[in-house]
Structure formats: C-alpha cells, structure tokens
TrEMBL record:
Bilayer topology term: Multi-pass membrane protein
PANTHER family, A to Z: DIPEPTIDE TRANSPORT SYSTEM PERMEASE PROTEIN DPPB-RELATED (PTHR43163)
InterPro entries reported in the protein's UniProt record: MetI-like (IPR000515), MetI-like_sf (IPR035906)
Family: Belongs to the binding-protein-dependent transport system permease family.
Origin species: Gulosibacter faecalis
Name of the featured protein: ABC transporter permease
Subcellular location: Cell membrane
Superkingdom of origin: Bacteria
Length: 352
C-alpha cells in the first residue's frame, strides 16, 4: 500500500507542475498590476518602485523559480492588495469551501441513494420514469442560473432567505447548498439506480428473498453495499468538481471561500494570492483522489492495488494482476487551470 501511495504521488508531480507553471503565466496575461494599485498620475519612478517591492522587475523565469521555491516552504509572498501573507489568506478561505462542499455532497448522496434505490425497485415503472426525468433536468441546469433563480424567488420575491453572506443561522446555507447540490443529485441518482438494478438481478438477492428477507433488509444489507463502489467513484469526482467549480456560486452568494478569493485576485491582479489559491486547490484535489481510491479498494477487494487476494486463493500463477484502482485523473487537477483561464478571459472581456 505504501508503495502504491508513493507511485501515485510521483504520478501526480507532472500535473501539479503543469498547474503551477500554467497559472503563473496565465495570471500575468491580465496586465500590469501597477495600473490598478497606482494613481493615473503615477510617474515611471513610482511604477519601478512598485515593481521592485513586488518582485515584478525580475526576469520572468526568475519570478517563476522564486514562486516554486517559496511553495516548498509555504511562502507564497504577500498580497498586493492588503500586504497580508498570501498563504494565510488562502488557508483562511479554504475551510469555507470545504464546508460548503461537504454539506452539499452529504445531502446529495443521501437524496440520490434514496431516490435511486426507489427507482431501481421497479425498473421502467412510474417511480423510475419520475426519477430519470428529475435527474436529467437536475444534471443539466447550470449552477449560476439556479443561483440567480433561487435568489429571485426565495430572497427577493418571498424574502424568506438571505441573498448572500455567512452571518446568521442555518438559513444562510440553504441557497448555496441547494444550488450546488442539484447536479450531484441528478448524476448520482442515475448511477445508484443503474448499479442497484444490476445488483438486484443477481442470484444471491433472489436467494435472500426466498429465505423470507424483507425488501428493506435486502436493499440495505445486501444490494446497497455492492452497488456503492461505482457511486463512490462518481461522488468523489463530483466532490472534486465542487471544490474546483464553486467559483461562480461563491461569487453570487458572497461566500468567503477559495473560489471567491480566486475571482477577487484575478480582478485585482493579485498574483501571489491567485497562485497560492490555485496550488492549494490542486493539492487538495490530488489528496481527495487518493482517499477515494483507497475507499474504493476497501469496498471492493477485487480492485485493490496488490494481488494478495489472488495469491491467498492460490491463483497467482494464472490470474492477471488486478489494477482496477481508479487512476487519478490528470484532467481533474488540470481543471484548476481551466477554471482560472476562463475566469481570466472573462475578466479581460469585462475590462475591454
């Protein structure tokens, strides 16, 4: 297991380096920060002093080497806006995003498992058709549209929920969590439904029914555990998407998370904070994928990273090595660059 973890860390080194270098250069395409932080009447001497204080007067490769070297010591420099440590700002904002992603996936998994199992009990029945239609709609509707619609209905029209912020009781969580939860519920409901239909058709399920087991007992004690592995994999990927893709939703609801911090840093050309935020997010995505792979192996021994199970059964000679563990998707980590790129492009369009 430790050998497997070591290999996965080495495999993820390349995408992490690509993320670091990509964001470093893409951030600088937004323009010269001195135009935002200095008055229009700033003299060349003032601009040169600003560049020297923020290390922008160095050659571009030297700036990159300084950033990479500082990343190993968690020294990302100071924010151009506030003068505060960029790493401290990111670590202060990241827990808010993790909390939002945790509660979103918690409720999404509960709802998806319930309606997915309900639909699987009678395939092609009324319940199945209702769940299929709902999941298709939920998985297709954009998050930003749901966020705006939710604010218009529940905050402006009825005035029962706050529009933004985190100050208050549980009501401040309802709109952000409900908005982010729709797509995971739609996707997971279909995965759970498909897995449960397959498992419920297995012979051992019929044997359990023949012994007098109730439908609730069969579903919860036999079928659900065996159907959980595919759903766990998809849930992990969706969680990665929440951490990486909650940028727009956090901005709409004023949620003080890593996504809003990225947007603010792009708008203000705060390079140290943006680079620190993207790097921390990429590392978190990698760690989450490792955890998902380990949980997947626990649920399904057939895909464990070693061949011990086969050897114990005396099948090591003629059994092919099992490598069914999910591979950490390079695209999941590189998606961080995609999010920053789209945000930077949108910012340039707005500035134009």
């Amino acid at each position: 297991m430790f050998t497997y973890l070591g290999k996965r860390i080495l495999q993820s080194a390349i995408p992490l380096i690509v993320v670091v270098i990509g964001v470093f250069f893409l951030a600088r395409l937004t323009g010269d920060p001195s135009s935002l932080y200095l008055p229009l009447s700033a003299t060349p001497e003032m601009k040169a002093d600003f560049a020297a204080r923020n290390g922008l007067d160095l050659p571009i490769l030297q700036q990159l080497m300084n950033f990479i070297g500082g990343a190993f010591t968690l020294d990302f420099g100071e924010s151009m806006r506030t003068g505060e440590s960029a790493g401290a700002m990111v670590l202060r904002a990241f827990p808010a995003t993790l909390q939002l992603a945790f509660f979103t996936m918690l409720f999404a998994i509960i709802i998806a498992v319930v309606i997915g199992c309900w639909a699987a009990l009678k395939p092609n029945g009324v319940a199945d058709r209702i769940v299929s239609f709902f999941s298709m709609v939920a998985a297709s509707v954009p998050d930003f549209w749901l966020a705006i619609l939710g604010i218009w209905i529940f905050a402006i029209s009825f005035g029962i929920l706050p529009t933004s912020g985190v100050q208050g009781g549980p009501e401040v969580w309802i709109l952000p969590v409900a908005t982010l939860m729709m797509r995971p519920v739609g996707v997971l409901a279909q995965i759970v439904r498909g897995s449960m239909v397959t498992v419920l058709g297995q012979p051992y399920i019929k044997v359990a029914y023949s012994r007098g087991a109730t439908k609730f007992f069969v579903v919860t004690r036999h079928a659900l555990k065996n159907a959980a592995a595919p759903a766990l994999t998809v849930a992990g990927d969706l969680t990665v998407g929440l951490i990486n893709g909650a940028v727009v939703v956090e901005s709409i609801f004023g949620w003080p998370g890593i996504g809003k911090l990225m947007i603010d840093s792009i708008l203000m050309r705060d390079f140290p904070v943006l680079q620190a935020a993207v790097l921390v997010t990429a590392v978190a995505i990698f760690i989450l994928n490792i955890i998902i792979d380990l949980l997947y192996a626990v649920l399904d021994p057939r895909v464990r990273p070693t061949g011990r199970s086969a050897k114990k059964q005396g099948k090591a000679d003629d059994a092919a090595p099992t490598t069914g563990i999910r591979t950490v998707k390079t695209g999941a980590i590189k998606a961080v660059v995609g999010t920053s790129t789209s945000s930077i492009s949108g910012t340039q369009g707005a500035s134009a």
